[in-house]
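debug: dumping io for the single-chain case to check the tokenizer round-trip. Nothing else runs in this session.
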Amino acid sequence: MIRAMTLVGLFLVAAGGYALGRILLGYARPVQPPVLLSRQEWALVDAAAQTLFPPGGAISVSGREAGIPAFVDRYVAAVPRHLRILMRLLFFLIEHATVLFPATGGLLGGGMRRFSRLSPDQRIAALAGWERSSLFARRLVFTSLRAILTMGYMSSPVVLRALGLAPREIPTPICEADLLYPRIGALPQTIALRAADLTPPSDGTPLGPSGPLRADYAQGARP
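debug: decoded output
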């Protein structure tokens, strides 16, 4: 009995050590200081972004180049607390569910490693398992992750320029009404314009498909 209890104790210690090492150790520091995400969450988001939006895909801009991890970091920090908790649990589940749903290769082929440590092909297989699962809950998890990452991808100026969807610069002439009415939600005393600031009205020339891009979407703008 004592020997059996000792073996059980050793097993529990080994399992606990493995779990702590898997969850906490071996994560590189993010390329930029995060607002909220931990190293573990950043690594998962980066790996999933590179899997869903790989280099050389239908759009040449990869998920990492589009700045998806930084977007998700800011997004998670901005949502209400209850949604933030759910999103962080989602990231944890995707990262470590390979223990229950191994990627290709199984245990000996490294298929049970955490998601961010899988090979590119194994990551594709792992996400495909979530997407095509017969369990609705697993498919919902994948849909939620894809929605978050897609928002980050489509928010990137680089991606929008590649798709031809980046907004154009719209000239806004200053007219007499601007001297009388403040911006929406502001007080009249915030009006800083004077008669000398008036500009000629628009000549009606359409923007067209090749006009200058808005400054924050132009070449060199940060994702």
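debug: round-trip ok. Residues 171-206 form one domain.
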